[in-house]
Write a structure and sequence with these properties.
It is built from one helix and no strands. It has about 20 residues and is mainly alpha-helical. The termini are far apart.
Length: about 20
Amino acid sequence: MLPQGIRREKQAHGLAAQR
């Protein structure tokens, strides 16, 4: 897993969790 992929997944999860 690359750092960029993890960063993108973390941001996506935060947005989905906040919604």
